[in-house]
Design goal:
Number of domains: 1
Number of helices: 3
Shape: globular
Number of strands: 6
Strand order of the largest sheet: 2-1-6-5-4-3
Structural class: alpha+beta
Radius of gyration: 15 Å
């Protein structure tokens, strides 16, 4: 594997903006990075979720559950997530895989965000995968409660 990947691939700027969002420093928030027709694939919901608004809802709920979202609407300190951080990142072309680790209610959660962007650097697909099974079950319950709270 070469030491330096080409930085002209659209995914590099997209992921920089994603990290800015995670730090609460992306002007325009998720609207500035999510394509209007983005597809969100969750480990919690069987069917793909289509569109910017539903994707924003799921990402906000995930942030509140896993502790990775800096947006105040994610529930701030009320979520039980903590210590969220990306541990690995692979970017090439229009795709990226970002591995993360966190704790939810004292349980270890490991997962990946698989992000695909268009040539303009807008996210067109966001896929989340989580392990181990105990973490999936816990995150499922937490996400359900967070989504109900955000939808009301």
């Amino acid at each position: 594997m070469s030491e330096s990947a080409p930085t002209t691939d659209p995914i590099h700027a997209c992921i920089e903006r994603w990290h800015d969002h995670m730090r609460g420093r992306l002007e325009g928030g998720l609207d500035a990075i999510l394509h209007p027709d983005v597809v969100f694939l969750s480990p919690i919901v069987f069917t793909p979720q289509e569109g910017r608004e539903i994707t924003k809802l799921y990402l906000t709920a995930a942030g509140g559950t896993l502790g990775g979202e800096s947006d105040e609407t994610a529930g701030g300190d009320s979520g039980s997530g903590g210590g969220f951080g990306y541990t690995k990142q692979i970017c090439q072309g229009n795709s990226a895989m970002l591995e993360f680790e966190t704790q939810v209610e004292g349980k270890y959660v490991n997962g990946v965000d698989i992000i695909t962007c268009d040539d303009d650097g807008m996210i067109v697909e966001f896929r989340v995968m989580i392990r181990p099974l105990q973490a999936i079950n816990l995150v499922h319950a937490q996400m359900k409660a967070m989504l109900e709270r955000l939808s009301s």
